[in-house]
Amino acid sequence: MRGLVSGLVVKILSMVILFFSIPLFIKYFGTESYGSLVTVTAFTSFLSLLNLGVPNAISTIGMQLARESKVNKLFNFTFPTYLAYTAIVLVILFLLGMLFRHYIENNILKVPFSLPIYFLAILYVCSNSILAYMQAIYSALHKIDIANIYAGILTLLPILSLFIVINHNGDVVFYFQILACLNLGLGILSFLLYLCNKAAEQPDLSQSDLVRLSKRNIAVTAITATAITVVSLVINQFDTLVVSYYLSKDVVVQYSILNKVVTIESMSYGLVFSSILPLLSNWFAEKNYDLIQQAHEKMLVLMSIIGGAVIIGNMLFFELFVSAWVDHSVFAGYLPIILYSIFSYFSSLYSVNYITYSSFNIGRKLMIFAAIVEPTIKIILTLYLTSKYGLIGTLLSVVLLAVLVTFPMTSWFLTKLSGGQITMSFHFILKHFGLAILPFMLMASVLSEQGVFIRLILLTLYLLTSWLLISKKDRLFLTYLLKNKNA
Fold this sequence. Notes:
This protein is mainly α. The chain folds into two domains: 214 residues, no CATH class; 246 residues, no CATH class. It contains 19 helices and no strands.
């Protein structure tokens, strides 16, 4: 229970900090420097792949071991090697930075940096890897609340670094220096606290434990985790680097603001999924495919309504919201908003497929296949369309990937992993899009300049129309789902 509550608190905390910190960052650093900060952050996110998925593997395997002494054995077996590997990565990246400094500075980051600062940036990445490993150990020990506390502190470090920079009249470079030092300190603290509380008991390992602790199992689990991480990073961070490469820092900020607003809106998806995920896992274990199929169809109904609300709500209120929240200069325009909102809509739909088959906890080969195909297509689309059409091209690549690749692929995975027992139902989606989303999108385009009261009435009418399109039986289920998020 503590793990669930602390996890929810961390999610809400990160969204609150994200919401309130962005105006502070832009106001202090200015649009140009904030664009550089966003780009560097995206760059370091990709460097996090260098942990090779080991923290995820430690968490997964450690939870399967189920005893503290066995998890400690896993730590003793893996941490020295992981620490040595991380140190080697730090040295290699620093040497590569020295060799390709001008290319990284002029073409990728487009911000000047000295070699000591570059070293601190790499140190930040490596310390993040160690901290991720320690969080994984606490998760493996079923001390989720402690892992979440570290995650919460990690969320606070950027805003703490900003306040230190403001008090010392520092710049973006100084900000990354402070952030790197704080991050490293947190990683060392988590390691020392673990050592102080580590039990010395030597466990008796069964044959299944030895299989789980084998190098092969750790490697396969890590590779699978890395594959999933690659997809996430390419989908969420690669665009920022491409926009930075081809366009100006002002456009980077506009894209970043658009991305963050839609991300905050998408929190509602996770709240719905968290209520149904335990049920899906139990039903799959019992081979109760009928209930899974029914739940899948009803989640699609709910996600279609929420996704449509995101599209129409953004068309009506995005400009007003961003102007009040940050500044009108970071407003990207209506076409980018519509494109990104359409992506969010399809993301809500294919997330239903993903959350359903991921609850089965099978299909490693398919996950790795997706991790190769999806990012490859994404990279090609983003590079080509951004170079041709600028920010509109970037957003078009996101929409095309969602509609033509991710959505059909997750639908196929769902059918494949359920042995054909569960299929995608398009009946309500098509009806709802034609009778509710599309008409109200047209009305929103006409009434977007009207007063706030008129816009609120339009959004309310959309929700009422959507509710009336749902069958009575489905309404009862969705009411239950929304009222019982801890089911």
